[in-house]
Design a protein that fits this description.
The structure holds 2 protein chains of 2 kinds. Chain A is built from 11 helices and 10 strands. Chain A is of the alpha+beta class. Classes of the chains: A alpha+beta, B alpha+beta.
């Protein structure tokens, strides 16, 4: 047993950490968030030049076949900087879907671009009625003229506002919440019939809802087998969950560091408020929550690339449940420890607090994963 | 023991309902119920209606234009107001500075300021907290030095709610540095248009401009704007804080928020069914409703004690803690109810007159922002930690 990163993984993490420290000050992040892309195109290029966007991909694609731990090393540092770049969406999730489901010519067409960062992809799997269930798909794809016609609506597609490719789930058969009958399509956003309603997100990023109105695509837009995408989506959502947990740990680390600094410096009643036992115990609780979260992020990263099993499913749901709860605890108690200043736009803590709460709304919140975990317990 | 209203109180409730049915503008109520922003004009329009009815100044004696309601009647008014979507009253003038002026001010101050509060001519804000004086309010540093007929004020106030609308501010200032912190504080009424005052917005994490910093640089304030005696301001400040604490538990607001949450949960969908039918979510709602029931009765017990001639004591501190936790829990559930749609921040839908399609549920847009914004509930009006200190000292003798 060894919980240390190996030399290569440590170097990877240090590289990202250095880059984030150098390029991602709080002030810069606010400015990136205001741009049309909602992130730093330059920073994305730097990630790409250092080979970081290729981490999970094979050597032929310029990567080094990194697994869950390598992705974790990158994501935690991106979390520390509250980085807005679509690493999770494009590299981990979309890249994973194409790697797993795509046939050779599709991989050739898209993966090297995604690995190099030249192509940015987004995943559009949720729908207005789906809540967090990715099998709850009403969008339909009908066969026509050797291709497909898509109709429906996809919800809260983070990064979808400026993506070059959008991976859309649509039903080629079956009923709304059936696991079978779901297919994946790779769409170019300028295809006729695609409408995007773009919005900022409350945690400083950007996304969109997508309406598909008789969108015609050729047969080679279909990713993987017709009607068999549910398993692929579930598996890759699991990898994305692990990456999101790692990001959350980075966010929590900084949130706790900021809070600790503050309660050491802020004086009331003639002493630093960190001298008050109620705040000391709260800070200890925040630290314990972070350590619980860190443990679960390690577990998630360790199972992320394992073959699918109920054990993997349980580990990932358990991790996301803990991350959701500890993130909310640290967010709320951190604000409370700061007082009013913790709620202001000009001070970075508030932005960490918001990201933690919103991580809980991505890929299933703590309630959703508790339920899933309980279901898997009953099934076993 | 009887936990129900008397027939007389029920008749009063009917009177309140009849008034609100007829007088509350529908556009204002819709904004309040949908958690949308109210303009200064909305507040002023509603204040005029209340004043005409004679129900604006519920903490004032009748001779100054107040209405003589019992604590139970005030409570009924609060409950019905929240239920109907009455705008929250901006308390700084009518419920905060006015009671201080009535109790400690001189006749001229009463004649000058009270009518202007009733007419809406003055919009007051509160100059208590400072960057270095939050929970430890008595450590405030804003300095007022007497020079002839004036005080010269220098310093900075923080977290001044709606200060951007105000033309008057009541301030705690330090007039004596030689004595114990609490003994060198005075209570000044200051015209915001005096040269040397500047207001800077503080934007909160939800992008809102609700609070401000107010800077004072060599601001000349006539001595007749001192309330009561010099260096006795702490006594008046504490008197005011008991008014502030009344109602901070926000029981009525929690009830309104809960009913809003239930409607929302019956429209949101999970597994093809209304979310309110989901067993785990409905249990979460049930739990918070049960907590709210308990807090409601605790609140009534305090009101009944005051009605019987008692003073609200440290019990209201306990209720502030419980009440704010409950409201925050309701806000948390409302944010959870919309699932992935908690993430978009659709600013244009924060206005009710938004034309065009709503991104998701028509009431979804403000929910995340409101959840974040209401983290303030456990911080302001004396943080919940300070409230617990009060309880442990006053009730438990620890």
């Amino acid at each position: 047993m060894d919980f240390r990163l190996n030399e290569e993984q440590q170097m990877l993490q240090d590289t990202v950490a250095r880059l984030v420290r150098g390029e991602y000050s709080f002030e810069k992040r606010l400015a990136f968030s205001e741009t049309e892309a909602g992130f730093s195109v330059d920073f994305w290029k730097q990630l790409s030049e250092l080979g970081l966007t290729a981490v999970p991909f094979s050597e032929e694609l310029g990567g080094f076949g990194g697994g869950g731990i390598e992705v974790q090393s990158v994501m935690t540092e991106l979390g520390r900087g509250l980085c807005l770049e679509p690493y999770l969406q494009s590299v981990v999730f979309a890249g994973g879907l194409i790697s797993q489901a795509g046939h050779d010519s599709q991989k050739e067409l898209w993966l090297s671009g995604i690995a190099s960062g030249e192509l940015q992809a987004a995943v559009a799997l949720q729908e207005p009625q789906s809540f967090y269930d990715l099998n709850d798909v009403q969008t339909r794809a009908e066969k026509k003229d050797g291709g497909f016609v898509l109709n429906g609506r996809k919800a809260v597609v983070i990064g979808g506002h400026c993506a070059d490719l959008i991976l859309v789930s649509a039903r080629t058969s079956g009923d709304t919440r059936d696991a079978s009958g779901i297919s994946l399509f790779v769409l170019k956003p300028d295809t006729a019939g695609i409408e995007r309603r773009i919005y900022p997100t409350i945690d400083g990023s950007k996304g969109c809802d997508i309406t598909l109105n008789n969108v015609q695509v050729s047969a080679d837009a279909l990713l993987g087998e017709d009607g068999k995408a549910s398993e692929v989506i579930e598996y890759q959502a699991g990898r994305a969950i692990a990456a999101l947990c790692a990001e959350a740990v980075g966010v929590m680390e900084v949130a706790n560091e900021l809070t600790l600094d503050y309660i050491k410096q802020r004086k009331q009643f003639g002493v630093p408020i960190g001298k008050f036992q109620v705040l000391q115990h709260r800070m200890v609780d925040m630290m314990s929550e972070l350590e619980q979260a860190r443990s679960m992020a390690i577990l998630a990263a360790s199972v992320a690339d394992q073959e699918q099993s109920d054990e993997r499913r349980r580990a990932l749901s358990a991790a996301k449940n803990v991350i959701g709860r500890s993130g909310q605890f640290i967010s709320e108690q951190g604000i409370q420890s700061h007082g009013g200043i913790g709620m202001t736009w000009e001070y970075n803590f508030a932005h960490y607090a918001k990201r933690l709460i919103m991580i809980n709304h991505q890929l299933g919140d703590d309630d959703y994963h508790l339920e899933r975990y309980a279901f898997l317990l009953q099934a076993s | 023991m009887n936990i129900n209203y008397t027939p007389k109180e029920l008749a009063f409730r009917d009177e309140v309902r009849a008034f609100l049915d007829q007088a509350l503008p529908a556009d204002i109520a819709a904004k309040v119920k949908g958690f949308r922003h109210l303009t200064k004009e909305d507040h002023q329009r509603w204040q005029q209606i209340l004043c005409k009815q004679g129900w604006y100044a519920t903490h004032w004696p009748e001779e100054y234009g107040g209405v003589k309601w019992t604590p139970v009647q005030k409570h009924i008014w609060d409950e019905e107001s929240c239920d109907y979507g009455v705008p929250r009253s901006i308390p700084f003038g009518v419920n905060m500075v006015a009671p201080v002026i009535i109790k400690f001010g001189n006749e001229e101050q009463k004649q000058t300021y009270l009518p202007r509060i009733l007419s809406g001519e003055d919009w007051w804000c509160q100059g208590y907290s400072e960057p270095g004086a939050g929970s430890d309010l008595a450590s405030l540093k804003t300095r007022a030095v007497r020079e002839g007929d004036h005080y010269v004020v220098n310093g900075q106030k923080a977290w001044t709610t709606l200060g951007q609308y105000a033309n008057m501010i009541f301030c705690l200032v330090r007039t004596n540095t030689e004595v114990k912190a609490q003994e060198g504080i005075s209570f000044l009424l200051i015209d915001m248009n005096t040269p040397g005052i500047s207001v800077r917005p503080i934007i909160t994490l939800d992008g809102e401009h609700e609070v401000n910093e107010v800077f004072f640089q060599d601001v000349k304030v006539p001595v007749e704007n001192l309330v009561g005696e010099e260096d006795k301001g702490w006594t008046y400040a504490k008197f005011l804080l008991t008014y502030e604490r009344t109602g901070l538990a926000g029981i009525g607001l929690s009830k309104a928020a809960l009913s809003h949450l239930k409607q929302l949960a019956s429209r949101c969908i999970k597994n093809g069914r209304p979310l309110i039918e989901d067993s785990s979510f409905s249990q979460r709602i049930a739990k918070v409703e049960i907590d709210l029931t308990a807090a409601t009765i605790s609140n009534l017990r305090i009101i009944a004690a005051v009605e019987g001639g008692g003073m609200p004591g440290a019990e209201s501190s306990m209720l502030k803690v419980k009440g704010t936790e409950i409201r925050q829990a309701i806000n948390d559930l409302a944010r959870r109810a919309i699932g992935p749609y908690a993430i978009p921040f659709v600013e244009e839908e924060l206005n009710l007159d938004h034309e065009g399609e709503f991104l998701s549920d028509q009431n979804a847009a403000p929910l995340s922002a409101q959840y974040f914004n209401n983290r303030k509930l456990s911080i302001f009006g004396g943080s919940n930690e300070i409230q617990k200190n009060i309880v442990s000292k006053m009730i438990l003798g620890l």
